Amino acid sequence: MEKAGGVKNELTVGEFARRAGVAVSTLHFYEAKGLIKSRRTGGNQRRYPRGLLRLVAIIRIAQRAGISLAEIKETLSPLPDDRPPNAAEWHTLSSNWKGQLDQRITALTQLRDELEGCIGCGCLSLKDCPLRNPKDELGKMEVGAVLLR
Fold this sequence. Notes:
Multidrug-efflux Transporter Regulator, Chain: A, Domain 2; 3 strands
């Protein structure tokens, strides 16, 4: 389908946002952060290539996994601007995040397990709380309710 200006496979910012399932402001934000690029028409309107829809989906998935925008940008930086990653590139790029996600899963599992010991404990001193005061580090500095000051 031919778009205004005679350029194929480009979407207006509104069309692109609707197809990507994000707000227009999100696209502007991603663009300001250097994650995606648009082309400007003679009337200074943004046009996005359809191929960037997959890239926006990847950015959103990475964000949901807790990857920072700076890390996403760094990981995606080797890709050409005009297309999303192919399967081989995605395998390489996503492997960069796998170790980080494994570490986060381990930390969250540990947090969950420690949290179960605190539920209903009624601890007022927090002296031995592995979540708020591991190994009573605060007790080395002061006595009493240090966290409440």
